[in-house]
């Protein structure tokens, strides 16, 4: 563990060097306990792969107060696996018309398209971090049989709802944006809605499962194969 200054009213707590299940468990536990310990002193708390960013209210506390809170929490942190996160199931329409890279990914992996789909939806993926764009959840770890490097030339426009793989991570694009991940399907569920409560269906520490749906079900659930 180490604590570093990240601004006049921010500290960052590092719990490891790389994102892995054991470190992710500690990040999830620490985040939950720090919210309880520091309460209204916090303006925001942002967990990531191996760290927790704490932004605090300078009218209520200072760096030393927050450091004391961090050390108190860390002294009581358990090494046991945390199962606090929810299990969230998200529907996906897998296909060559919804995932432009599905066929090529299968070919490179020496698998059939159906095998890629079965392997992808058989996994349970931890939400390691949310970033890049609101609602963009980094999920891992993808089965090494279907892991695929990022595209050599990113697309200028990836559609909202695109389900993608990059290395051993998978994600759903919450909005139209540039991107270099391999597209294998589409999810009809909005990953970020500023008018909804909560605004995102997942948070760090949750576990995600994907469930294959038909083309018709995809449209009935509000999905679109347009770029919007």
From TrEMBL:
> Under which main EC class is this enzyme filed?
hydrolase
* EC identifiers of the protein: 3.5.2.9
Q: InterPro entries, from UniProt?
A: CT_C_D (IPR003833), Cyclophilin-like_dom_sf (IPR029000), PxpB (IPR010016)
Alphabetically sorted, this entry's keywords are: ATP-binding, Hydrolase, Nucleotide-binding
GO terms of molecular function: 5-oxoprolinase (ATP-hydrolyzing) activity; ATP binding
As given in the record, the signal peptide range reads: none
| One Pfam family matching this protein | CT_C_D
- This protein's source sits in the domain of life called Bacteria
Sequence ranges assigned to domain Carboxyltransferase in this UniProt record: 1-201
Cross-referenced PANTHER family: 5-OXOPROLINASE SUBUNIT B (PTHR34698)
This chain belongs to the protein called 5-oxoprolinase subunit PxpB
From which source organism is this entry? Pontibacterium sinense
């Amino acid at each position: 563990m180490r604590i570093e200054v990240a601004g006049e009213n921010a500290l960052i707590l590092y719990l490891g060097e790389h994102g892995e299940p054991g470190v992710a468990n500690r990040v999830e536990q620490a985040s939950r306990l720090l919210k309880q310990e520091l309460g209204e002193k916090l303006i925001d708390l942002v967990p990531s792969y191996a760290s927790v960013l704490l932004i605090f209210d300078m009218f209520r506390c200072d760096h030393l107060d927050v450091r004391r809170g961090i050390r108190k929490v860390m002294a009581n942190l358990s090494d046991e696996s945390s199962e606090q996160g929810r299990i969230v199931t998200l529907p996906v329409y897998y296909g060559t018309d919804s995932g432009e890279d599905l066929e090529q990914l299968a070919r490179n992996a020496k698998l059939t398209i159906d095998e890629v789909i079965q392997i992808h939806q058989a996994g349970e993926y931890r939400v390691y971090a949310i970033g890049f764009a609101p609602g963009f959840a980094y999920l891992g770890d993808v089965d090494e049989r279907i892991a695929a490097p990022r595209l050599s030339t990113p697309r200028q426009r990836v559609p909202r709802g695109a389900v993608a793989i990059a290395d051993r991570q998978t994600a759903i694009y919450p909005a139209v944006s540039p991107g270099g991940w391999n597209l294998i399907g589409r999810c009809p569920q909005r990953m970020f809605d500023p008018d909804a409560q909560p605004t995102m269906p997942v948070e760090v520490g949750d576990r995600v499962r994907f469930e294959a749906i038909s083309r018709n079900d995809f449209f009935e659930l509000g999905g679109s194969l347009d770029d919007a």
